[in-house]
Design brief:
With 189 residues, the chain is α+β, with helices and mostly antiparallel strands. The protein has helices spanning 3-14, 17-36, 39-46, 119-129, and strands at residues 53-58, 76-82, 88-93, 97-102, 109-118, 136-144, 147-155, 174-177, 183-186. The protein has a single domain, classed as Hypothetical upf0131 protein ytfp (Roll). Helices cover 27% and strands 32% of the residues. Strands 1, 2, 5, 8 and 9 form a five-stranded mixed β-sheet that branches. A hairpin with a 5-residue loop joins strand 8 (174-177) and strand 9 (183-186). The N and C termini lie far apart (47 Å).
């Protein structure tokens, strides 16, 4: 299956309410399983875990107060932040979750939260986001207080059929998601 066929299939599935319900149920089961696994179970299923910590920038359902935040409950919260570069666009997919794409002009800074996570948590996030298939994890620059740091951010390919036709036109430079997962405008003073 090529990328175009994959995107078409994903778009069709996105409109199938029974499939969406099934996905929501599997996601909840996966999240519960991962949170409840011991380190030994994680090691048996995913290999030896490193103690290396890395930064992750989240802008949607992983933020505090959102449905997937349980994956970050034990991670170190570093604060609210935004991307340094105005090189992104946020798309409201199906009115229920956002996707960020890279762009070369007319982009925005993305508002979100910064966390420090261990490798186990990063693997859980990769599973949730479908790293490499639905979203892909990329390094971006964000503010950590007065410093600029690199952090992982999950982005969707601009060519994805899920993106086509979902762009919201804005006149501001900053976008974020609210507690109902709606993409909103935010004017920074």
């Amino acid at each position: 299956m090529n990328e175009s066929e994959h995107d078409k299939n994903m778009a069709e599935l996105a409109n199938d309410s029974e499939y969406q319900k099934w996905c929501d149920e599997r996601e909840a089961e996966t999240n519960e399983s991962l949170v409840n696994m011991t380190d030994a179970e994680i090691e048996a299923n995913f290999g030896l875990q490193s103690t290396v910590m890395t930064k992750v920038f989240v802008y949607g359902s992983l933020k505090r107060g959102f449905g997937n935040h349980s994956l970050l409950e034990h991670a170190k919260y570093l604060g609210n932040t935004e991307t340094v570069n105005c090189a992104y666009k946020m798309h409201p997919l199906f009115g229920s979750f956002p996707a960020v794409t890279a762009c070369t002009n007319d982009g925005y800074s993305i508002i979100g939260e910064l966390y420090e996570v261990d490798e186990r948590t990063l693997q859980s996030l990769d599973m949730l986001e479908g790293n490499g298939s639905m979203y892909t994890r990329y390094l971006t620059q964000v503010y950590d207080g007065p410093q600029v740091v690199e952090a992982w951010m999950y982005m969707m390919p601009v060519t994805s059929q899920l993106i086509v036709g979902s762009e919201v036109h804005r006149t501001d430079r900053y976008v974020y998601t609210d507690s109902r997962h709606n993409t909103q405008e935010w004017f920074k003073v």
